């Protein structure tokens, strides 16, 4: 049974909030993403639809007692399981092409782009980048400093960065 958000237990709400945060943080909602709790026979599960820029979607389900590490792993595994050829065979028809204005090659190309996007997002879900840097007139080539601090090359820098 589909639950209304105000009916979630504190654990279900925390898991749903974390999933929504990860979906937003990793840009996995392009208009069709969603996240909700369903209960069957006393068992609660979180259902997620993750979406890439060309609107390919992946469905992921986890038990409501899943921790953040398990949630990240399930999302990453679901993204990696996306198969453009399978989705093409599932959806392609002349009616689909006419309704959406796709050519077969254009549709397959979009699915392949989404597969690559899902691969990058999967990597990001599984890895946390942490760096401590201290320098005095040293050379810094860290991605964090180049991207966020505008520092590249010689100079002074000191800081702690965590990118999750």
Explain what the structure shows.
This protein folds into two domains: 5-126, no CATH class; 129-163, no CATH class. It has 164 residues and is an alpha+beta fold. Helix content is 45%, strand content 28%. It starts with 9 loop residues before the first helix and ends with a strand. Helix 2 runs antiparallel to helix 5 (104-126) and helix 3 (84-91) crosses helix 5. Strand 2 (43-51) and strand 3 form a beta hairpin. It contains six helices and five strands. 20% of the residues are buried. The strands form two sheets. Strands 1-2-3 form a three-stranded antiparallel beta sheet, with helices on one face. Strands 4-5 form a two-stranded antiparallel sheet.
The share of residues in helices is 40-55%
Largest sheet: 3 strands, antiparallel
Rg over CA atoms, rounded to whole Å, is 20 Å
The separation of the N and C termini measures 34 Å
Low-confidence stretches: 135-158
Mean pLDDT: 84
Strand order of the largest sheet: 1-2-3
The assigned structural class equals: alpha+beta
Secondary-structure element sequence?
Answer: HEEEHHHHEHE
Number of domains as seen in the coordinates: 2
Number of helices: 6
Q: How many β strands by DSSP?
A: 5
Strand content: 25-35%
Keywords for this structure?
164 residues, alpha+beta, 2 domains, two-stranded antiparallel sheet
């Amino acid at each position: 049974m589909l639950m209304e958000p105000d009916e979630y237990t504190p654990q279900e709400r925390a898991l749903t909030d974390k999933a929504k945060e990860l979906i937003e943080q990793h840009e996995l909602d392009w208009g069709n993403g969603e996240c909700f709790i369903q209960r069957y026979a006393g068992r609660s599960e979180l259902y997620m639809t993750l979406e890439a820029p060309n609107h390919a979607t992946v469905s992921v389900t986890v038990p409501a007692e899943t921790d953040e590490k398990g949630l990240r792993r399930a999302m990453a595994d679901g993204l990696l399981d996306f198969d453009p050829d399978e989705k093409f065979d599932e959806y392609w028809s002349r009616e689909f092409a006419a309704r959406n204005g796709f050519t077969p090659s254009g549709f397959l190309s979009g699915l392949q782009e989404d597969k690559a996007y899902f691969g990058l997002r999967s990597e990001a879900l599984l890895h946390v980048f942490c760096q401590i840097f201290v320098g005095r007139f040293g050379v810094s080539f860290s991605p964090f400093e180049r991207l966020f601090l505008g520092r590249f090359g010689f100079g002074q820098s000191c800081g702690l960065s965590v990118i999750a």
